Give the backbone structure.
Amino acid sequence: MLECCPIFLSGVTVSSNLESEISYQLSDEACAEALAELSTLQDMLRWSISRMNEAGLYFGHGTDNARDDAVMLVTHALHLPWNIDHDWQNAKLTRSERESVISMVSRRINERMPTPYLTGEAWFYGLPFSVDERVLIPRSPIAEIIAARFQPWLGGGSGNKSVHRILDLCTGSGCIGIACATEFPQAHVELLDISFDALTLAEENIARHELSDRVMALQSDLFDAADGKYDIIVSNPPYVDADDMSCLPEEFHNEPELALAAGEDGLDLVRIMLAQARQYLADDGIFIVEVGNSWPALEDAYPTVPFMWQEFEMGGHGVFVLTADQLDECAEALKLKL
């Protein structure tokens, strides 16, 4: 029964088959058999799910299971919306349509290519974003914080603070900053990234969401291009440590290493950000950063800093909030050690 309900939980990262190796390959014979014997939309969906499960794929780039992943691939290959009505499940497909589905599933399995790279689109904060191998696939739980308008931290929880300027550091596709601009329609947002390739795609997403009047993308090594004070500084920087980099599922090897790796403990960039953030943060501003699995290393490195770790209804972890006052109080502890 085709009940297309993929999981788009604001970019949640999940874990599955973390130590699997690429031992299974979808053979030409299996593809030819499917092309010859299958005929309906439901056939292709069921076959795709079975082959994905058989291959032991990793799911964590917008979906957390083979069924939702297959729905995204099959409907995209057929130029259909992912939430197509289940009444279409018995619709027959042409040979060329079946070939298109099989080709996509084959790449998903044999190349371990994440589905959003195959479809060219990922969802974040309920919005579609163009993605390809120039950027990390959006999946940060920060989307949940944005949807809550950064409460209860922004403006001391009053909900009355006016937000004029937002900085999205290490922006990648631009999804976090664009989501912020959508949530705060009066704010101007700057998207900073060191990668020109990533910024080109971020600019495409700015145009896609018709935000060019309020959102700008700038090349910058961390805060180098930042100017003035921001009410909100938010970042999903590279934070994967050396141990995790060595055992990432194959799907992650299709993503830019520049957007993932951050040294032995995953904190190479975060240390610099913590030392410099207060210079660019308004006196009543907040600083939000995702560090994922590197959160214990951060706690160990800064035992006196009162990181406020967030809990998420839709999954995810390793996101802290600090206020400008807290950055002031911890200024000495946050200085870079030479």
Observations:
- The chain has two domains: 28-119, 126-334.
- The first helix runs from residue 28 to 37.
- Residues 1-20 have pLDDT under 50 and may be disordered.
- The chain has 13 helices and nine strands.
